[in-house]
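Pasting two entries for a bug report.
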Amino acid sequence: MERMYPKEIDVRTVSPLALAFVGDGVYEMMVRERLVCLANRPPRELHKEAVSMVRAEAQAAATEIILPLLTEKELAVYKRGRNAHTTRNSDEYHRATGLETLFGYLYLNGEIDRVRCLFDTIMGDTTDGE
Protein backbone atom coordinates (compact mmCIF):
# COMPACT_ATOMS: atom_id res chain seq x y z
CA MET A 1 0.00 0.00 0.00
CA GLU A 2 1.27 3.45 -0.79
CA ARG A 3 -0.23 6.88 -0.41
CA MET A 4 -2.92 7.53 -2.96
CA TYR A 5 -2.40 11.29 -3.25
CA PRO A 6 1.16 11.93 -4.47
CA LYS A 7 1.56 15.56 -3.32
CA GLU A 8 4.21 15.95 -0.64
CA ILE A 9 3.13 17.41 2.67
CA ASP A 10 4.99 18.49 5.79
CA VAL A 11 3.07 16.42 8.32
CA ARG A 12 4.65 18.34 11.19
CA THR A 13 2.47 21.32 10.24
CA VAL A 14 -0.82 19.40 10.11
CA SER A 15 -3.07 19.68 13.16
CA PRO A 16 -3.46 16.54 15.26
CA LEU A 17 -7.20 16.40 14.58
CA ALA A 18 -6.61 16.65 10.82
CA LEU A 19 -4.11 13.81 11.14
CA ALA A 20 -6.71 11.86 13.12
CA PHE A 21 -9.23 12.51 10.33
CA VAL A 22 -6.89 10.82 7.84
CA GLY A 23 -5.83 8.14 10.31
CA ASP A 24 -9.43 7.19 10.99
CA GLY A 25 -9.89 6.48 7.28
CA VAL A 26 -6.62 4.57 7.02
CA TYR A 27 -7.42 2.44 10.05
CA GLU A 28 -10.95 1.70 8.87
CA MET A 29 -9.74 0.79 5.37
CA MET A 30 -7.22 -1.63 6.84
CA VAL A 31 -9.89 -3.21 9.04
CA ARG A 32 -12.22 -3.59 6.06
CA GLU A 33 -9.45 -5.05 3.92
CA ARG A 34 -8.57 -7.55 6.64
CA LEU A 35 -12.17 -8.63 7.13
CA VAL A 36 -12.76 -9.21 3.43
CA CYS A 37 -9.51 -11.12 3.07
CA LEU A 38 -10.36 -13.35 6.04
CA ALA A 39 -13.83 -14.31 4.84
CA ASN A 40 -16.14 -13.43 1.97
CA ARG A 41 -19.26 -12.51 3.92
CA PRO A 42 -22.35 -10.41 3.23
CA PRO A 43 -21.69 -6.64 3.48
CA ARG A 44 -24.03 -6.31 6.46
CA GLU A 45 -21.92 -8.77 8.48
CA LEU A 46 -18.69 -7.11 7.32
CA HIS A 47 -20.01 -3.69 8.34
CA LYS A 48 -21.12 -4.89 11.77
CA GLU A 49 -17.71 -6.47 12.45
CA ALA A 50 -15.84 -3.43 11.12
CA VAL A 51 -17.80 -1.05 13.34
CA SER A 52 -16.94 -3.13 16.40
CA MET A 53 -13.26 -2.94 15.49
CA VAL A 54 -13.04 0.79 14.77
CA ARG A 55 -15.10 2.15 17.64
CA ALA A 56 -13.28 4.19 20.27
CA GLU A 57 -13.22 1.38 22.84
CA ALA A 58 -11.51 -1.01 20.43
CA GLN A 59 -9.03 1.61 19.26
CA ALA A 60 -8.23 2.58 22.85
CA ALA A 61 -7.48 -1.08 23.61
CA ALA A 62 -5.32 -1.23 20.47
CA THR A 63 -3.14 1.60 21.78
CA GLU A 64 -2.20 -0.50 24.79
CA ILE A 65 -0.86 -3.19 22.46
CA ILE A 66 1.40 -0.91 20.44
CA LEU A 67 2.49 1.76 22.94
CA PRO A 68 5.56 -0.23 24.06
CA LEU A 69 6.64 -0.56 20.41
CA LEU A 70 6.49 3.12 19.46
CA THR A 71 9.58 5.17 18.76
CA GLU A 72 10.10 8.41 20.65
CA LYS A 73 8.81 10.38 17.64
CA GLU A 74 5.75 8.13 17.24
CA LEU A 75 4.95 8.39 20.93
CA ALA A 76 5.11 12.19 20.70
CA VAL A 77 2.69 12.14 17.74
CA TYR A 78 0.34 9.79 19.61
CA LYS A 79 0.39 12.05 22.68
CA ARG A 80 -0.22 15.12 20.52
CA GLY A 81 -3.38 13.49 19.21
CA ARG A 82 -4.42 12.08 22.56
CA ASN A 83 -4.14 15.52 24.15
CA ALA A 84 -5.91 17.40 21.35
CA HIS A 85 -9.08 19.21 22.33
CA THR A 86 -12.00 17.12 21.09
CA THR A 87 -15.75 17.37 21.51
CA ARG A 88 -15.82 14.19 23.57
CA ASN A 89 -14.25 14.07 26.97
CA SER A 90 -13.46 10.44 27.74
CA ASP A 91 -10.16 8.69 28.21
CA GLU A 92 -11.09 6.03 25.62
CA TYR A 93 -11.97 8.63 23.01
CA HIS A 94 -8.72 10.54 23.62
CA ARG A 95 -6.62 7.38 23.31
CA ALA A 96 -8.48 6.44 20.11
CA THR A 97 -7.81 9.91 18.72
CA GLY A 98 -4.13 9.46 19.55
CA LEU A 99 -4.07 6.19 17.61
CA GLU A 100 -5.81 7.78 14.63
CA THR A 101 -3.40 10.73 14.76
CA LEU A 102 -0.45 8.35 14.69
CA PHE A 103 -1.85 6.38 11.76
CA GLY A 104 -2.60 9.60 9.86
CA TYR A 105 0.88 10.95 10.54
CA LEU A 106 2.63 7.78 9.42
CA TYR A 107 0.43 7.40 6.34
CA LEU A 108 0.88 11.00 5.17
CA ASN A 109 4.60 10.77 5.91
CA GLY A 110 4.83 7.78 3.56
CA GLU A 111 5.69 5.31 6.33
CA ILE A 112 3.24 2.73 5.01
CA ASP A 113 5.30 -0.28 6.10
CA ARG A 114 5.25 1.04 9.67
CA VAL A 115 1.48 1.55 9.51
CA ARG A 116 1.10 -2.05 8.34
CA CYS A 117 3.46 -3.35 11.06
CA LEU A 118 1.56 -1.58 13.83
CA PHE A 119 -1.82 -2.65 12.44
CA ASP A 120 -0.69 -6.26 12.12
CA THR A 121 0.54 -6.17 15.71
CA ILE A 122 -2.82 -4.82 16.88
CA MET A 123 -4.60 -7.61 15.00
CA GLY A 124 -2.20 -10.26 16.31
CA ASP A 125 -0.97 -11.03 12.81
CA THR A 126 2.75 -11.00 13.55
CA THR A 127 5.10 -13.87 14.16
CA ASP A 128 8.05 -11.96 15.56
CA GLY A 129 6.29 -9.59 17.96
CA GLU A 130 6.96 -6.44 15.94
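Entry 2 (this is the one that rendered wrong in the viewer):
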Amino acid sequence: MNKSKLNVAIIGLGTVGSGVLRLLNKQKNNIKNRTGIELRVVAISAKNTTKKRSVDISPFRWIASPLNIAKDPNVDVIVELIGDMDNTARKVIREAINNGKHVVTANKSLLAKEGSIYEELAREKGVFLRYEAAVAGGIPIIKVLQDSLIVNKISKLYGVINGTCNFILTKMESDGREYSDVFSEAQRLGYVESDPRLDIGGIDSAHKLALLSCLAFGTALNFKAVKTEGIDHISIEDIQEADLIGYKIKLLATAEYSKNKLTQEVSPKLIRKGSPIAQVNGSTNIIAIEGEEIGTTVFSGPGAGMGPTASSVVSDLVAIASRKSKSTFLTGDKTNSSNRNEKVSKKSSFYLRFVLKDKPGVIARLSGKLSNCGISINQMKQKPLPKQRATLIMITHKALEESLKKALIDIKKLKICEQKPVAIEIQEI
Protein backbone atom coordinates (compact mmCIF):
# COMPACT_ATOMS: atom_id res chain seq x y z
CA MET A 1 0.00 0.00 0.00
CA ASN A 2 1.29 3.43 -0.97
CA LYS A 3 1.60 5.40 2.30
CA SER A 4 0.44 8.59 0.65
CA LYS A 5 -2.45 7.05 -1.28
CA LEU A 6 -5.29 4.73 -0.33
CA ASN A 7 -7.43 3.05 -3.00
CA VAL A 8 -10.93 2.69 -1.58
CA ALA A 9 -13.87 0.53 -2.64
CA ILE A 10 -17.34 1.24 -1.23
CA ILE A 11 -19.87 -1.59 -0.99
CA GLY A 12 -23.38 -0.40 -0.17
CA LEU A 13 -24.64 2.95 -1.45
CA GLY A 14 -27.52 3.76 0.85
CA THR A 15 -27.60 6.86 3.04
CA VAL A 16 -24.17 6.29 4.58
CA GLY A 17 -22.43 4.99 1.44
CA SER A 18 -23.68 7.94 -0.59
CA GLY A 19 -22.56 10.24 2.21
CA VAL A 20 -19.05 8.77 2.15
CA LEU A 21 -18.79 9.33 -1.62
CA ARG A 22 -19.99 12.90 -1.25
CA LEU A 23 -17.64 13.65 1.66
CA LEU A 24 -14.59 12.17 -0.06
CA ASN A 25 -15.31 14.23 -3.17
CA LYS A 26 -15.92 17.41 -1.18
CA GLN A 27 -13.00 17.11 1.25
CA LYS A 28 -10.43 15.34 -0.97
CA ASN A 29 -8.10 18.31 -1.24
CA ASN A 30 -8.58 19.33 2.39
CA ILE A 31 -7.68 15.79 3.58
CA LYS A 32 -4.58 15.73 1.39
CA ASN A 33 -3.44 19.19 2.52
CA ARG A 34 -3.87 18.34 6.22
CA THR A 35 -2.60 14.75 6.23
CA GLY A 36 -0.62 14.28 3.03
CA ILE A 37 -2.93 11.35 2.22
CA GLU A 38 -4.93 10.92 -0.98
CA LEU A 39 -8.11 8.88 -0.58
CA ARG A 40 -9.18 7.66 -4.02
CA VAL A 41 -12.39 5.73 -4.73
CA VAL A 42 -11.52 3.09 -7.31
CA ALA A 43 -14.68 0.93 -7.21
CA ILE A 44 -18.27 0.90 -5.93
CA SER A 45 -20.98 -1.71 -5.63
CA ALA A 46 -24.60 -2.00 -4.49
CA LYS A 47 -27.68 -4.12 -5.15
CA ASN A 48 -29.31 -1.66 -7.56
CA THR A 49 -27.47 0.19 -10.32
CA THR A 50 -30.46 2.31 -11.38
CA LYS A 51 -31.65 3.49 -7.97
CA LYS A 52 -31.86 7.26 -7.64
CA ARG A 53 -29.22 8.44 -5.18
CA SER A 54 -28.23 11.73 -3.57
CA VAL A 55 -24.80 11.61 -5.19
CA ASP A 56 -23.64 11.13 -8.80
CA ILE A 57 -22.06 7.66 -9.10
CA SER A 58 -21.36 7.81 -12.84
CA PRO A 59 -17.65 8.74 -12.49
CA PHE A 60 -16.90 5.58 -10.51
CA ARG A 61 -16.12 2.06 -11.65
CA TRP A 62 -19.08 -0.19 -10.89
CA ILE A 63 -18.41 -3.83 -10.00
CA ALA A 64 -21.57 -5.89 -9.66
CA SER A 65 -20.14 -8.57 -7.37
CA PRO A 66 -18.97 -7.38 -3.93
CA LEU A 67 -16.83 -10.51 -3.64
CA ASN A 68 -14.99 -9.58 -6.82
CA ILE A 69 -14.18 -6.19 -5.29
CA ALA A 70 -12.82 -7.97 -2.23
CA LYS A 71 -10.37 -9.79 -4.51
CA ASP A 72 -9.45 -6.81 -6.70
CA PRO A 73 -5.65 -6.20 -6.48
CA ASN A 74 -6.19 -2.49 -7.15
CA VAL A 75 -8.17 -2.05 -3.92
CA ASP A 76 -6.42 -1.31 -0.59
CA VAL A 77 -9.44 -0.99 1.69
CA ILE A 78 -13.07 -2.12 1.59
CA VAL A 79 -15.76 0.09 3.09
CA GLU A 80 -18.59 -2.34 3.93
CA LEU A 81 -21.92 -0.53 4.36
CA ILE A 82 -24.37 -3.30 3.51
CA GLY A 83 -25.44 -3.57 7.13
CA ASP A 84 -27.13 -5.93 9.58
CA MET A 85 -26.36 -9.66 9.54
CA ASP A 86 -26.52 -9.91 5.75
CA ASN A 87 -24.53 -12.97 4.72
CA THR A 88 -23.01 -10.96 1.86
CA ALA A 89 -21.48 -8.55 4.37
CA ARG A 90 -20.02 -11.46 6.30
CA LYS A 91 -18.50 -12.99 3.17
CA VAL A 92 -17.15 -9.66 1.90
CA ILE A 93 -15.38 -8.83 5.16
CA ARG A 94 -13.78 -12.26 5.41
CA GLU A 95 -12.78 -12.32 1.72
CA ALA A 96 -11.31 -8.82 1.89
CA ILE A 97 -9.19 -9.61 4.94
CA ASN A 98 -8.04 -12.91 3.46
CA ASN A 99 -6.90 -10.96 0.39
CA GLY A 100 -4.85 -8.55 2.51
CA LYS A 101 -7.28 -5.63 2.43
CA HIS A 102 -8.19 -3.35 5.31
CA VAL A 103 -11.87 -3.11 6.23
CA VAL A 104 -13.94 -0.19 7.47
CA THR A 105 -17.49 -1.06 8.47
CA ALA A 106 -20.55 0.40 10.19
CA ASN A 107 -22.03 -3.08 10.71
CA LYS A 108 -22.61 -3.07 14.49
CA SER A 109 -24.82 -6.17 14.56
CA LEU A 110 -22.22 -8.29 12.77
CA LEU A 111 -19.34 -6.92 14.84
CA ALA A 112 -21.16 -7.38 18.16
CA LYS A 113 -21.60 -11.08 17.43
CA GLU A 114 -18.53 -11.97 15.34
CA GLY A 115 -16.12 -9.04 15.64
CA SER A 116 -13.48 -11.03 17.51
CA ILE A 117 -13.32 -13.54 14.66
CA TYR A 118 -12.63 -10.87 12.06
CA GLU A 119 -10.18 -9.01 14.30
CA GLU A 120 -8.16 -12.17 14.84
CA LEU A 121 -8.13 -12.84 11.11
CA ALA A 122 -7.10 -9.23 10.41
CA ARG A 123 -4.21 -9.53 12.83
CA GLU A 124 -3.04 -12.74 11.16
CA LYS A 125 -3.14 -11.06 7.74
CA GLY A 126 -1.52 -7.82 8.94
CA VAL A 127 -4.46 -5.57 8.06
CA PHE A 128 -6.79 -3.31 10.05
CA LEU A 129 -10.47 -3.56 10.95
CA ARG A 130 -12.06 -0.20 11.81
CA TYR A 131 -15.65 0.56 12.88
CA GLU A 132 -15.98 4.06 14.33
CA ALA A 133 -19.23 4.54 12.39
CA ALA A 134 -20.84 1.50 14.05
CA VAL A 135 -21.30 3.26 17.39
CA ALA A 136 -22.83 6.69 18.12
CA GLY A 137 -22.61 8.16 14.60
CA GLY A 138 -20.59 11.35 14.72
CA ILE A 139 -19.20 10.93 18.26
CA PRO A 140 -15.61 9.61 17.92
CA ILE A 141 -16.06 7.39 20.97
CA ILE A 142 -13.98 4.46 19.64
CA LYS A 143 -10.93 6.68 19.20
CA VAL A 144 -11.52 8.24 22.62
CA LEU A 145 -11.48 4.83 24.30
CA GLN A 146 -8.51 3.58 22.28
CA ASP A 147 -6.37 6.69 22.52
CA SER A 148 -7.45 9.63 24.72
CA LEU A 149 -8.53 7.54 27.74
CA ILE A 150 -6.02 4.72 27.36
CA VAL A 151 -4.25 5.53 30.66
CA ASN A 152 -7.50 5.49 32.64
CA LYS A 153 -8.95 2.50 34.44
CA ILE A 154 -12.58 2.80 33.37
CA SER A 155 -15.19 1.49 35.77
CA LYS A 156 -18.47 2.46 34.13
CA LEU A 157 -20.00 3.86 30.96
CA TYR A 158 -23.60 4.75 30.27
CA GLY A 159 -25.70 6.79 27.91
CA VAL A 160 -28.36 7.10 25.25
CA ILE A 161 -27.09 5.43 22.07
CA ASN A 162 -30.20 4.84 19.95
CA GLY A 163 -31.59 7.94 18.26
CA THR A 164 -34.88 6.33 17.23
CA CYS A 165 -35.92 5.45 20.78
CA ASN A 166 -34.82 8.84 22.05
CA PHE A 167 -36.83 10.54 19.28
CA ILE A 168 -39.95 8.55 20.23
CA LEU A 169 -39.66 9.21 23.97
CA THR A 170 -38.88 12.91 23.38
CA LYS A 171 -41.88 13.31 21.06
CA MET A 172 -44.21 11.53 23.48
CA GLU A 173 -43.13 13.94 26.20
CA SER A 174 -43.26 17.15 24.15
CA ASP A 175 -46.49 16.38 22.26
CA GLY A 176 -48.37 14.40 24.89
CA ARG A 177 -48.93 11.54 22.42
CA GLU A 178 -49.08 7.79 22.96
CA TYR A 179 -46.26 5.47 21.97
CA SER A 180 -48.08 3.85 19.01
CA ASP A 181 -48.82 7.23 17.42
CA VAL A 182 -45.23 8.52 17.69
CA PHE A 183 -43.81 5.16 16.58
CA SER A 184 -45.87 5.41 13.37
CA GLU A 185 -44.50 8.91 12.76
CA ALA A 186 -40.93 7.67 13.27
CA GLN A 187 -41.57 4.96 10.69
CA ARG A 188 -42.91 7.49 8.18
CA LEU A 189 -39.81 9.65 8.69
CA GLY A 190 -37.55 6.67 8.01
CA TYR A 191 -36.05 6.60 11.53
CA VAL A 192 -37.02 2.98 12.27
CA GLU A 193 -35.07 -0.06 11.02
CA SER A 194 -36.83 -2.43 8.62
CA ASP A 195 -37.02 -4.78 11.61
CA PRO A 196 -38.39 -2.37 14.26
CA ARG A 197 -37.32 -4.60 17.15
CA LEU A 198 -33.70 -3.66 16.46
CA ASP A 199 -34.54 -0.12 17.59
CA ILE A 200 -37.51 -0.23 19.93
CA GLY A 201 -36.52 -3.60 21.40
CA GLY A 202 -33.17 -2.19 22.53
CA ILE A 203 -31.16 -4.59 20.33
CA ASP A 204 -29.37 -1.84 18.39
CA SER A 205 -28.25 -0.29 21.69
CA ALA A 206 -27.15 -3.71 22.93
CA HIS A 207 -24.97 -4.22 19.84
CA LYS A 208 -23.27 -0.89 20.46
CA LEU A 209 -22.91 -1.44 24.20
CA ALA A 210 -21.18 -4.80 23.67
CA LEU A 211 -18.59 -3.11 21.43
CA LEU A 212 -18.04 -0.23 23.85
CA SER A 213 -17.70 -2.57 26.86
CA CYS A 214 -14.99 -4.58 25.14
CA LEU A 215 -12.97 -1.45 24.44
CA ALA A 216 -13.60 0.32 27.74
CA PHE A 217 -12.83 -2.53 30.13
CA GLY A 218 -10.56 -4.81 28.10
CA THR A 219 -13.04 -7.66 28.50
CA ALA A 220 -14.15 -10.25 25.98
CA LEU A 221 -16.76 -9.26 23.42
CA ASN A 222 -20.02 -10.70 24.79
CA PHE A 223 -23.21 -9.45 23.15
CA LYS A 224 -25.22 -12.40 24.47
CA ALA A 225 -24.65 -11.18 28.03
CA VAL A 226 -26.36 -7.80 27.49
CA LYS A 227 -29.63 -7.72 29.44
CA THR A 228 -31.99 -6.05 26.97
CA GLU A 229 -35.42 -4.43 27.29
CA GLY A 230 -37.16 -2.06 24.87
CA ILE A 231 -39.58 0.85 25.14
CA ASP A 232 -42.78 -0.42 23.53
CA HIS A 233 -44.51 -0.84 26.92
CA ILE A 234 -43.94 2.81 27.91
CA SER A 235 -47.13 4.93 27.89
CA ILE A 236 -47.66 8.67 27.90
CA GLU A 237 -48.97 8.22 31.43
CA ASP A 238 -45.59 6.86 32.56
CA ILE A 239 -43.81 9.84 31.00
CA GLN A 240 -46.20 12.33 32.62
CA GLU A 241 -45.98 10.69 36.04
CA ALA A 242 -42.19 10.66 35.83
CA ASP A 243 -42.27 14.37 34.97
CA LEU A 244 -44.36 15.14 38.06
CA ILE A 245 -41.67 13.72 40.36
CA GLY A 246 -38.76 15.36 38.51
CA TYR A 247 -37.65 12.63 36.09
CA LYS A 248 -37.55 11.77 32.39
CA ILE A 249 -37.66 8.30 30.86
CA LYS A 250 -34.71 7.34 28.66
CA LEU A 251 -33.56 4.08 27.11
CA LEU A 252 -30.27 3.84 28.98
CA ALA A 253 -27.33 1.63 28.01
CA THR A 254 -25.09 0.85 30.99
CA ALA A 255 -21.92 -1.21 31.38
CA GLU A 256 -19.99 -1.58 34.61
CA TYR A 257 -16.87 -3.57 35.49
CA SER A 258 -16.26 -4.34 39.14
CA LYS A 259 -14.48 -7.18 40.95
CA ASN A 260 -13.68 -8.90 37.65
CA LYS A 261 -17.35 -8.99 36.73
CA LEU A 262 -18.88 -7.20 33.75
CA THR A 263 -22.56 -6.23 33.79
CA GLN A 264 -24.25 -4.86 30.65
CA GLU A 265 -27.81 -3.63 30.41
CA VAL A 266 -30.10 -1.75 28.02
CA SER A 267 -33.47 -0.76 29.48
CA PRO A 268 -35.74 2.23 30.14
CA LYS A 269 -34.83 4.19 33.26
CA LEU A 270 -36.16 7.20 35.12
CA ILE A 271 -33.37 9.80 34.97
CA ARG A 272 -33.44 12.97 37.07
CA LYS A 273 -34.18 16.02 34.91
CA GLY A 274 -30.99 17.80 35.93
CA SER A 275 -28.75 15.01 34.59
CA PRO A 276 -27.02 15.66 31.24
CA ILE A 277 -28.41 12.29 30.08
CA ALA A 278 -32.01 13.46 30.63
CA GLN A 279 -31.46 16.66 28.65
CA VAL A 280 -30.54 14.96 25.37
CA ASN A 281 -33.47 15.10 22.98
CA GLY A 282 -34.40 13.82 19.53
CA SER A 283 -31.88 11.63 17.73
CA THR A 284 -28.85 12.97 19.64
CA ASN A 285 -26.62 10.42 21.42
CA ILE A 286 -24.77 10.92 24.70
CA ILE A 287 -22.17 8.72 26.43
CA ALA A 288 -20.69 9.24 29.90
CA ILE A 289 -17.48 7.48 30.96
CA GLU A 290 -16.20 7.16 34.52
CA GLY A 291 -12.40 6.86 34.66
CA GLU A 292 -9.96 6.58 37.55
CA GLU A 293 -7.95 9.67 36.62
CA ILE A 294 -10.49 11.86 34.84
CA GLY A 295 -13.62 11.25 36.90
CA THR A 296 -16.73 11.47 34.71
CA THR A 297 -16.50 12.82 31.17
CA VAL A 298 -19.44 13.19 28.79
CA PHE A 299 -19.56 13.03 24.99
CA SER A 300 -22.60 14.12 23.00
CA GLY A 301 -23.44 14.54 19.33
CA PRO A 302 -25.50 13.32 16.40
CA GLY A 303 -26.04 9.59 16.68
CA ALA A 304 -26.89 8.92 13.05
CA GLY A 305 -27.40 10.54 9.68
CA MET A 306 -25.48 10.84 6.43
CA GLY A 307 -22.96 13.50 7.45
CA PRO A 308 -21.95 12.36 10.95
CA THR A 309 -21.69 8.66 10.05
CA ALA A 310 -19.82 9.35 6.80
CA SER A 311 -17.41 11.51 8.78
CA SER A 312 -16.62 8.57 11.06
CA VAL A 313 -16.01 6.28 8.07
CA VAL A 314 -13.62 8.73 6.42
CA SER A 315 -11.74 9.30 9.68
CA ASP A 316 -11.13 5.55 9.82
CA LEU A 317 -9.77 5.62 6.28
CA VAL A 318 -7.34 8.38 7.25
CA ALA A 319 -6.25 6.38 10.33
CA ILE A 320 -5.54 3.34 8.18
CA ALA A 321 -3.64 5.31 5.57
CA SER A 322 -1.52 7.00 8.24
CA ARG A 323 -0.92 3.63 9.98
CA LYS A 324 -2.46 4.95 13.20
CA SER A 325 -4.96 2.11 13.41
CA LYS A 326 -4.75 -0.60 16.06
CA SER A 327 -6.36 -3.82 17.19
CA THR A 328 -9.54 -3.64 19.21
CA PHE A 329 -11.21 -6.88 20.29
CA LEU A 330 -8.23 -9.09 21.12
CA THR A 331 -6.59 -7.22 23.98
CA GLY A 332 -9.23 -8.20 26.52
CA ASP A 333 -9.52 -10.84 29.21
CA LYS A 334 -11.52 -13.59 27.54
CA THR A 335 -12.35 -15.17 30.91
CA ASN A 336 -14.37 -12.27 32.32
CA SER A 337 -17.56 -13.23 34.15
CA SER A 338 -20.66 -11.98 32.38
CA ASN A 339 -24.11 -13.51 32.03
CA ARG A 340 -27.43 -12.04 30.91
CA ASN A 341 -29.32 -13.96 33.60
CA GLU A 342 -26.81 -13.49 36.42
CA LYS A 343 -28.34 -11.84 39.48
CA VAL A 344 -26.83 -8.50 40.47
CA SER A 345 -27.37 -7.61 44.13
CA LYS A 346 -27.89 -3.86 43.92
CA LYS A 347 -30.68 -1.84 45.45
CA SER A 348 -32.69 0.75 43.52
CA SER A 349 -35.97 2.58 43.77
CA PHE A 350 -38.60 1.70 41.17
CA TYR A 351 -41.54 3.34 39.45
CA LEU A 352 -44.48 0.91 39.22
CA ARG A 353 -47.75 1.22 37.30
CA PHE A 354 -50.60 -1.26 37.70
CA VAL A 355 -53.97 -1.28 35.90
CA LEU A 356 -56.19 -3.07 38.41
CA LYS A 357 -59.70 -4.38 38.61
CA ASP A 358 -61.51 -1.75 40.67
CA LYS A 359 -62.80 -4.01 43.41
CA PRO A 360 -62.61 -3.87 47.21
CA GLY A 361 -59.41 -5.28 48.72
CA VAL A 362 -57.40 -5.31 45.50
CA ILE A 363 -54.84 -2.72 46.62
CA ALA A 364 -54.42 -4.43 49.99
CA ARG A 365 -53.72 -7.78 48.31
CA LEU A 366 -51.20 -6.20 45.93
CA SER A 367 -49.47 -4.30 48.74
CA GLY A 368 -49.29 -7.48 50.76
CA LYS A 369 -47.38 -9.30 48.03
CA LEU A 370 -44.93 -6.39 47.72
CA SER A 371 -44.44 -6.31 51.50
CA ASN A 372 -43.86 -10.08 51.64
CA CYS A 373 -40.94 -9.61 49.22
CA GLY A 374 -39.44 -6.73 51.19
CA ILE A 375 -40.73 -3.97 48.89
CA SER A 376 -41.86 -0.86 50.79
CA ILE A 377 -43.76 2.01 49.16
CA ASN A 378 -42.54 5.61 49.27
CA GLN A 379 -45.36 7.22 47.24
CA MET A 380 -48.68 5.94 45.91
CA LYS A 381 -51.41 7.40 43.71
CA GLN A 382 -54.69 5.87 42.54
CA LYS A 383 -56.55 7.10 39.44
CA PRO A 384 -59.96 5.73 38.41
CA LEU A 385 -60.49 4.47 34.84
CA PRO A 386 -63.65 3.53 32.91
CA LYS A 387 -65.13 0.02 33.08
CA GLN A 388 -64.38 -0.71 36.76
CA ARG A 389 -60.64 -0.30 36.42
CA ALA A 390 -58.08 1.84 38.22
CA THR A 391 -54.47 2.85 37.65
CA LEU A 392 -52.18 2.56 40.64
CA ILE A 393 -48.85 4.44 40.53
CA MET A 394 -46.20 3.58 43.09
CA ILE A 395 -42.65 4.72 43.85
CA THR A 396 -40.76 2.23 46.00
CA HIS A 397 -38.03 2.69 48.53
CA LYS A 398 -34.76 1.04 47.51
CA ALA A 399 -35.10 -2.70 46.99
CA LEU A 400 -33.36 -5.58 45.25
CA GLU A 401 -34.42 -6.09 41.64
CA GLU A 402 -34.81 -9.84 42.13
CA SER A 403 -37.15 -9.17 45.07
CA LEU A 404 -39.31 -6.94 42.90
CA LYS A 405 -39.39 -9.54 40.14
CA LYS A 406 -40.60 -12.17 42.61
CA ALA A 407 -43.29 -9.80 43.89
CA LEU A 408 -44.55 -9.14 40.35
CA ILE A 409 -44.74 -12.89 39.68
CA ASP A 410 -46.78 -13.34 42.87
CA ILE A 411 -49.05 -10.41 41.94
CA LYS A 412 -49.69 -11.94 38.52
CA LYS A 413 -51.01 -15.07 40.21
CA LEU A 414 -53.64 -12.97 42.02
CA LYS A 415 -55.28 -12.18 38.65
CA ILE A 416 -56.11 -8.65 39.74
CA CYS A 417 -54.25 -6.83 36.91
CA GLU A 418 -55.93 -5.91 33.62
CA GLN A 419 -52.58 -5.68 31.85
CA LYS A 420 -48.92 -6.43 32.48
CA PRO A 421 -47.49 -4.13 35.19
CA VAL A 422 -44.84 -1.58 34.23
CA ALA A 423 -41.71 -1.46 36.39
CA ILE A 424 -38.92 1.05 35.63
CA GLU A 425 -35.78 1.50 37.70
CA ILE A 426 -35.00 5.00 38.96
CA GLN A 427 -31.38 5.57 38.02
CA GLU A 428 -29.50 8.21 40.02
CA ILE A 429 -26.74 9.48 37.71
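Dev reply: Rendering is fixed now. As a check, the viewer should reflect this: The chain has a mean pLDDT of 90.
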